[in-house]
């Protein structure tokens, strides 16, 4: 429709995993406005304050419009200053550096850090380029910092990733529990739906279970402030109450579930760069730790307080659990009585133990009210957690025990932070251990299937799991990785303990490339900056947190000489001959071992040693040639990557439709590219079978894959074994296909706690006005004015004790780094005594440089919520 010469098209919000549909106004080749799409089922016309600025984030005054390289005397020089260069100069140097690394150290020294902000074709192209082309599995997204724990818990519980429910459950729920999830700021449009439910169905109850009072507390009926990490104990208390009150849905559990536990798996994460670990201890710490159990841990595990135990860090093996009986499960949860958990978990000094106990019991009463529909929501509070996998699994256990999962108004719902963490990072498999549609690089059948669909010689894919994101950064530091290309991510600001990684990026042998739309902190610390096309300057699809895949077509030309990430990967792939990348190369982590040459097999397929990676990965094949382009509906200038590359086909469509083949028949079925691009299709919830979306998985009334005898996809679980980072088959899942697991996971203390040297907790996160590291939202004047800097939230008494008051500048120090921030003692985050909070959007504050880099030992996701710090006047 025309409106003052503005043409409106459908689009998707660039920010959070809510995935709000937009109407995007274009006039004179420029995006001039956006508004909430009234027909979009997610947001029904609403946007949050960030969403309304989707147009402005494209046009900041310092938008990158040409490649920039550090140079001196006309040549690349690590110590040089950034100078504009042509795309040929940029990509030639990049290829030269990669070949140098490849020749010296093999493919395991090359890495790409991707993102949950990739479009689906971008993530798929990256996976193909890195795994199929470079034969390295060192591709890992910033989603590793965001929801890796949720992913592993999904696999281990259900055998397949992503939520069973959908957002409409908000309107059907009677009780909603927020687990460490400040939805009011992190998922504001979902929160508006929660508010609508609360205000229109007055019996609705909302409980905010959190380490501090926050904006979500304003609407919640109750806020339960707990001591960091004790959420594990609180959920175990609820499990105990369900069993004690005889409320286990026996018919459901006996038919569809087994019990599992892994109580000895109490590794302390990989804190190899922390002050705790001297370099000589690194190896030991990664594999085995001697841990002195504290009083609570000991009780929770049926051991003696002060006992020193040797604990293996599972480091991602699938041996982290095994089947147990219901009786064993009951014995495991027995210590989690009201008194024990209340004493352990009470998080606010100013609240009495009786009040806290009463709150826990009231929460149990709500959970145990079988007549009320029950939804649980969580996001980073659970995932960025040293026991993230466990605590995700425990909430599933609660819902499964009650038989309240995958039903309208009933389910455990892991929300996502990024617009396409689900669609791109997870489903496409842009992780170091994954291949598309839940397949794994360590599984020979999965590699063979992928090689066949990619039309690559057998044996192309490297069987060794790649480096996860934190391992890549450590590799950059210790020299095992020399090349890093970060795409759609600002990792040197967002990663924990990042002063290390900043120094690593400047190591003389390292070559760091950043593609982005703005000169982020990471870009300015790199060697080469590539200007990327913004979201509406390219064709794209995102997959949101409720399994909704949504597409949009390119609306305007990229700014200046910016190019899409797909274009960059395709152009770069033309600069490698197969002889250069597919010969014999060293294998990661196996001294003396080699990745065998596949050149001979390639020749049998018509790919000569002098053919390029582009020829092998992206050149027109029968399928791709069928992705005809240009489409007469759109002007040539909006033909995106295909037009810019002079290709006779449409790469984004070809990539998506090729990827789609992985999804069909595997419980992830997607519709075709053209369907998602239709203006009247506002996204579809996968699996899409016979043109129909699936609102509830694991529910025979809705899900074509769910069978009464195999509710949790039995045959698929057998064919696609679960497991986590190593890709080792999950034996319990294999032995019981079609059954979900109810886990017992004990409480375990966090890796460090406030002590005499660092006496406060620090947790970090997002605020309403800014997206992640603020690289886009800080360039919107209205958002910048609304929240110009990250504030240090603390209790007024804690501030006063340190001679600080609201508005003073404080120095925050940890064992890992320091930063300065202005003190805030009121407003949105009301901290209990002993706790502080900082947002990470502010480049000036660089909050995450203070954070510990300890990870969950199974998912390898870092914990941003529990660093011990001290605060003083700056
Ligand atoms: Fe919707 Fe999230 Fe975008 Fe806000 S930021 S408009 S809630 S998708």
TrEMBL record:
Cofactor comment text: Binds 1 [4Fe-4S] cluster. Binds 1 molybdenum-bis(molybdopterin guanine dinucleotide) (Mo-bis-MGD) cofactor per subunit.
Binding site for Mo-bis(molybdopterin guanine dinucleotide): 50, 117, 142, 146, 380, 384, 490, 515-516, 538, 565, 764-773, 848, 865
Keywords assigned: 4Fe-4S, Electron transport, Iron, Iron-sulfur, Metal-binding, Molybdenum, Nitrate assimilation, Oxidoreductase, Periplasm, Signal, Transport
GO cellular component: membrane; nitrate reductase complex; periplasmic space
Catalytic activity, reaction form: 2 Fe(II)-[cytochrome] + nitrate + 2 H(+) = 2 Fe(III)-[cytochrome] + nitrite + H2O
Cofactor (UniProt): [4Fe-4S] cluster; Mo-bis(molybdopterin guanine dinucleotide)
Main location: periplasm
One example GO MF annotation: molybdopterin cofactor binding
Enzyme Commission numbers on file: 1.9.6.1
Alphabetical list of PROSITE patterns matching this protein: 4FE4S_MOW_BIS_MGD, MOLYBDOPTERIN_PROK_2, TAT
Coiled-coil annotated residue ranges, if any: none
Binding site residues for [4Fe-4S] cluster: 13, 16, 20, 48
UniProt keyword Repeat present: no
GO biological process: cellular respiration; Mo-molybdopterin cofactor biosynthetic process; nitrate assimilation
Enzyme class, first EC level, given as a word: oxidoreductase
Family indicated by similarity: Belongs to the prokaryotic molybdopterin-containing oxidoreductase family. NasA/NapA/NarB subfamily.
Xref: NCBIfam families: NAPA, PRK13532.1
Function: Catalytic subunit of the periplasmic nitrate reductase complex NapAB. Receives electrons from NapB and catalyzes the reduction of nitrate to nitrite.
Subunit structure as annotated in this protein's UniProt entry: Component of the periplasmic nitrate reductase NapAB complex composed of NapA and NapB.
Protein name in UniProt: Periplasmic nitrate reductase
Organism: Sutterella megalosphaeroides
Phylogenetic placement of the source organism: Bacteria, Pseudomonadati, Pseudomonadota, Betaproteobacteria, Burkholderiales
């Amino acid at each position: 429709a025309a409106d003052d010469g503005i043409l409106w098209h459908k689009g998707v919000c660039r920010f959070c995993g809510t995935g709000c549909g937009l109407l995007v106004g274009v006039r004179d080749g420029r995006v001039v406005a956006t508004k909430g799409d009234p027909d979009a089922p997610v947001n029904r016309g609403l946007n949050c304050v960030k969403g309304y600025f989707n147009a402005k984030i494209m046009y900041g005054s310092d938008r990158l419009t040409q490649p920039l390289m550090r140079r001196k005397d006309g040549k690349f020089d690590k110590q040089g200053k950034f100078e504009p260069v042509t795309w040929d100069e940029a990509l030639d140097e990049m290829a030269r550096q990669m070949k140098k690394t490849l020749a010296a150290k093999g493919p395991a020294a090359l890495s790409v850090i991707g993102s949950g902000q990739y479009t689906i074709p971008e993530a798929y192209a990256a996976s193909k380029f890195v795994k199929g082309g470079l034969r390295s599995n060192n591709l890992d997204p910033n989603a590793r910092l965001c929801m890796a724990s949720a992913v592993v818990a999904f696999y281990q519980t259900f055998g397949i990733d992503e939520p069973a429910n959908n957002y409409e459950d908000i309107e059907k729920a009677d009780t909603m529990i927020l687990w460490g999830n400040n939805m009011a700021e992190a998922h504001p449009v979902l929160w508006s739906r929660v508010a609508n439910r609360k205000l229109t169905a007055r019996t609705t109850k909302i409980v905010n279970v959190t380490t501090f009072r926050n904006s979500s507390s304003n609407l919640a009926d109750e806020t339960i402030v707990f001591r960091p990490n004790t959420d594990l104990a609180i959920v175990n208390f609820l499990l105990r109450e369900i069993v004690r009150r005889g409320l286990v849905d026996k018919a459901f559990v006996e038919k569809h579930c087994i019990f599992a536990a892994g109580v000895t798996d109490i590794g302390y994460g990989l804190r190899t760069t922390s002050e705790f670990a001297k370099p000589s201890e690194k190896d030991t710490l990664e594999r085995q730790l001697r841990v002195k159990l504290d009083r609570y841990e000991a009780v929770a595990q049926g051991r003696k307080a002060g006992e020193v135990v040797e604990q293996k860090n599972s480091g991602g093996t699938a041996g982290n659990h095994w089947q147990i009986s219901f009786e064993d499960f009951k014995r495991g949860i027995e210590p989690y009585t009201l008194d024990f958990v209340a004493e352990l978990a009470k998080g606010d000094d100013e609240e009495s133990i009786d009040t806290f106990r009463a709150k826990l019991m009231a929460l149990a009463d709500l959970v145990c009210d079988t007549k009320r529909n029950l939804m649980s929501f969580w996001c980073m509070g659970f995932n960025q957690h040293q026991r993230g996998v466990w605590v995700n699994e425990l909430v599933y256990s609660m819902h499964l025990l009650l038989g309240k999962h995958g039903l309208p108004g009933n389910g455990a719902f892991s929300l996502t932070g990024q617009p396409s963490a689900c669609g791109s990072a997870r489903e496409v498999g842009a992780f170091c251990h994954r291949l598309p549609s839940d397949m794994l690089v360590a599984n020979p059948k999965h590699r063979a299937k992928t090689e066949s669909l990619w039309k690559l010689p057998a044996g192309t894919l490297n069987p060794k799991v790649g480096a996860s994101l934190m391992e890549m950064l450590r590799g950059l530091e210790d020299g095992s990785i020399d090349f890093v290309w970060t795409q759609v991510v600002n990792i040197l600001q967002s990663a924990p303990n990042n002063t290390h990684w900043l120094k690593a990026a400047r190591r003389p042998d390292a070559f760091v490339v950043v593609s982005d739309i703005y000169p982020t902190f990471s870009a300015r610390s790199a060697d080469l900056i590539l200007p990327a096309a913004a979201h509406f300057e390219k064709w794209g699809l995102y997959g949101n947190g409720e399994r909704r895949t949504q597409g949009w077509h390119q609306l305007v030309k990229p700014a200046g000489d910016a190019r899409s990430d797909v274009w960059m990967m395709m152009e770069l792939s033309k600069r490698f001959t197969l002889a250069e990348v597919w010969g014999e190369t060293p294998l990661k982590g196996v001294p003396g071992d080699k990745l065998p040459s596949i050149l001979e097999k390639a020749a049998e397929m018509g790919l000569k040693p002098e053919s390029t990676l582009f020829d092998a990965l992206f050149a027109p094949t029968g399928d791709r040639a069928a992705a005809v382009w240009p489409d007469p509906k759109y002007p040539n200038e909006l033909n995106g990557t295909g037009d810019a590359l002079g290709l006779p086909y449409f790469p984004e469509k070809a990539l998506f439709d090729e990827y789609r083949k992985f999804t069909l028949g595997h419980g992830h079925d997607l519709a075709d590219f053209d369907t998602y691009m239709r203006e009247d299709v506002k996204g579809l919830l996968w699996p899409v079978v016979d043109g129909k979306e699936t609102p509830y998985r694991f529910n025979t009334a809705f899900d074509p894959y769910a069978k009464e005898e195999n509710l949790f996809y039995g045959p698929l679980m057998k064919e696609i074994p679960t497991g986590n980072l190593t890709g080792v088959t999950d034996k319990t899942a294999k032995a019981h296909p079609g059954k979900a697991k109810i886990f017992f996971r004990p409480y375990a203390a966090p890796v460090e706690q406030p002590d005499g040297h660092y006496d406060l907790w620090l947790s970090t996160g997002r605020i309403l006005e800014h997206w992640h590291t603020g690289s886009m939202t800080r360039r919107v004047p209205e958002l910048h004015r609304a929240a110009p800097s990250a504030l240090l939230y603390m209790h007024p008494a804690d501030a006063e004790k340190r001679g600080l008051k609201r508005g003073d500048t404080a120095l925050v120090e940890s064992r890992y780094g320091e930063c300065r921030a202005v003190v805030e003692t009121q407003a949105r985050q009301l901290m209990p005594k002993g706790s502080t909070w900082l947002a990470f959007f502010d480049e000036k504050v660089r909050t995450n440089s203070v954070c510990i880099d300890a990870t969950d030992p199974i998912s390898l996701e870092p914990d941003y919520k529990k660093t011990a710090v001290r605060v003083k006047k700056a």
